[in-house]
Design goal:
The chain is an all-alpha fold and about 240 residues long. The protein contains nine helices and no strands. Helices cover about 75% and strands about 0% of the residues.
């Protein structure tokens, strides 16, 4: 009765709500993350900082936001494997594989965007950021989040753990989730160091440069994700 794409998205929405996965994710990204940034900046506002200190506080905010957002992608590193013994349905359903696979990523991306919107607004108000700088920082963070999300999803496709999830409801030691957690730390650290290095030099275009780099990285990871699922699902074409 519904178009294929809408049906797949509806199925993921119902599953996510019933399993409380979206409620948990929303609680972390839409409630806890903005509150943490609010409290952090209330602490910073009580300090008398110089230029370098101000740039450090901005970078600390960025790294905290990135860590919270990217750590939620650990679950994405097993999003396909959790289908267990029913995972073969993605290959036998008369539906384009991209729709079935993307449908599992849409709601995490939407929830993350909503949470980031509230967080960046609070960050901008409390840290007295210019509107353009706040927007560019938000674009940079979301670009990195998308890049990491597709990296985590790609790892689950290329190194699936179907058998283990077919036996147990949860996998205690999933290598994909471990690598996702490690890469979340690396992505956050590299972004914070780059932001501090450029901003401490009083580079006027620091945030637009970082935003462009993040968007290019995100586009590249989406491209590699599509290329790999195209090869993996080649027999379905």
């Amino acid at each position: 009765k519904l178009p294929t794409a809408i049906s797949a998205i509806k199925k993921e929405f119902v599953t996510g709500v019933r399993s409380n996965a979206f409620i948990k994710l929303g609680g972390i990204l839409v409630i806890i993350m903005p509150m943490a940034i609010y409290l952090l900046n209330k602490l910073y506002s009580a300090m008398d900082t110089r230029f370098i200190g101000t740039q450090m506080t901005i970078c600390f905010n960025i790294v905290i936001i990135l860590l919270v957002m990217l750590m939620t992608n650990i679950d994405i590193a097993s999003v396909y494997s959790r289908d267990g013994s029913s995972s073969y349905l993605n290959k036998v359903q008369p539906t384009p594989y991209a729709i079935l696979l993307f449908s599992k990523l849409i709601f995490p991306m939407i929830i993350a965007l909503i949470g980031l919107f509230f967080t960046i607004n609070i960050f901008a108000i409390e840290a007295d950021l210019a509107r353009n700088d706040a927007i560019l920082i938000g674009v940079m963070i979301y670009g990195i989040y998308i890049a990491h999300l597709f990296t985590s999803a790609e790892s689950d496709i290329m190194n699936p753990q179907y058998e283990q999830y077919a036996t147990f409801n949860e996998q205690a030691n999933n290598p994909n989730e471990t690598s996702s957690g490690v890469s979340a730390l690396l992505f956050s650290a590299i972004a914070a160091v780059a932001a501090f290095f450029l901003s401490s030099r009083n580079d006027a275009g620091v945030w637009i440069k970082l935003a462009i780099v993040a968007l290019v990285l995100a586009a590249f990871k989406v491209f590699t994700y599509l290329s790999k699922i195209k090869a993996f699902y080649k027999e379905k074409q």
